Amino acid sequence: MQAAPLSNDSQLPSISDIAPKIQLVKNTFASGKTKTIDWRIEQLKQIRKMVVEQQDKIFVAMQQDLGRCDMESWTAELGGVISEVDHSLKHLKKWMKPRKVSTPIVAQPAKSYILPEPLGSILIIGAWNYPLLLVLSPLVAAISAGNCAVIKPSELSANMSKLVAQLIPQYLDNETFAVVEGAVAETTELLKHQFDHIIYTGGEVVGKIVMRAAAEFLTPVTLELGGKSPCIVDSSTDLDVTAARIVWSKWMNAGQTCVAPDYVLVEEAFSAKLIEAIKNKITEFYSADAATSQDYGRIVSERHLARIVSYLDSQDVVHGGKHDVANKYIEPTIVLNPAHDSRIMQEEIFGPVLPIVTIKNIEAAIPFINERAKPLALYLFSKNSDFEQQVLDSTSAGMVCINDGFMFAANPNLPFGGVGNSGTGAYHGKIGFDNFSHLKAVMKRSFWFDVPLRYPPFTDKKFKLLKKLI
């Protein structure tokens, strides 16, 4: 059953409305309003209140945009936002305190410390695949650090974009936060203005556009760009649990997750067992016909559906492959041994298609991964601790999870971010607080003991003594 569309209570702003919104946010920051801990706590609590009180409307919007069931939306987004808020509230006072550091003898007597201070105005450009989490999670970090923010939700998840634009003014400080809806024209206009930090979640092409625009103002950026996240399966693994966790992490949100396993590397001799186990779990989770499952999502648009379906041309489809354009549906699909230079192995799939690539021995997985761009995430399923260490030592990825899917995202103490082509910068928890703060170096010295060693006129004696002290 399709949920009813949200009512359109407001019109999209014109391009001319954007500059005044940005200026209001900047003026508010200049007033010092956001620097107090009381203000930050109140805004964080309001985010939590908004998510809890408006969860039914959020569920409707997500069902409209992505065909998600309520439990998946809660697990993937709402619960994550609440957890992030609670973690920040628990630790905020400590994060804001000056951080004492030692002072070398040459600078004594003095005390030195690092003082976190807010950057100012943050531009948050969200993504359509997790349209609430990927605006509110960065917003939690920005608020914790004492910043103002302009939020640009993705126009592809249109119902959630509209809802975010309606709810933010109802719950948060209207002088401090602004929402700008729209598409390319609005985003282009936003990027013409100077911000103190920009965080963008999306693809590499737009990520480069954002970075070029930010460079005009020397604005720091956080880019969460995804990529082809590999999943290595060693024959020593627990097959049943491995299959369940791969299916959960790959087909959540119909595969539209930046950290979903993009392809599996497995020894040829073990591949048939793994494929059969994955097939069984797909049926167990989503029934023999996933189109009838209430727990299986849909593709965000017909354009994205056509792109994903095109990957299946001339491929060995060993499971699934059916699709329905009218319902934006693609069956959970497994492809065996696609050509390494094919589009399905060159581009991020971002959909419910899983290539399985067989290799002669498990150690061959390492050069296979290293020959490609650094991924946002890397997954390893193995009971072999030596091989586990070899993978950690010999590959580079934004994040690694051993014996599970993207459970690292549930730990606010771990940074969420990429490396190389998969992104730059990170957030979540204290790392997010620091990312949206300037960690100001402060030294305070005393007047009472002033050694003339550093002052002219310089002598050989002074020079020798100075070299001993430094």
Report what the structure shows:
With 470 residues, this protein is of the alpha/beta class. The protein has two domains: 15-225 and 421-441, Aldehyde Dehydrogenase, Chain A, domain 1 (3-Layer(aba) Sandwich), CATH 3.40.605; 230-417, Aldehyde Dehydrogenase, Chain A, domain 2, CATH 3.40.309.10. Helices cover 41% and strands 18% of the residues. The strands form five sheets. Strands 10-13-14-9-8-15-16 form a seven-stranded mixed sheet, with helices on both faces. A six-stranded mixed sheet has the order 5-4-3-6-7-18, sandwiched between helices. A three-stranded antiparallel sheet has the order 1-2-20. Strand 1 (99-101) and strand 2 (110-118) form a beta hairpin. The longest helix is centred in the first third of the chain and has 27 residues, at 70-96. The termini are far apart. The model is unreliable at 1-10 (pLDDT under 50).
Give me some keywords for this one.
alpha/beta; disordered N terminus; 2 domains; single chain; six-stranded mixed beta sheet; Aldehyde Dehydrogenase, Chain A, domain 1; seven-stranded mixed beta sheet; 41% helix; 470 residues; Aldehyde Dehydrogenase, Chain A, domain 2
Task: Specify the structural class.
Answer: alpha/beta
Q: Report helical residue fraction.
A: 40-55%
> What is the radius of gyration computed over CA atoms, rounded to a whole number of angstroms?
25 Å
Compute the number of helices. 16
Can you tell me the CATH superfamily of the largest domain? Answer: Aldehyde Dehydrogenase, Chain A, domain 1
Overall average pLDDT: 95
CATH C-level class of the largest domain is Alpha Beta
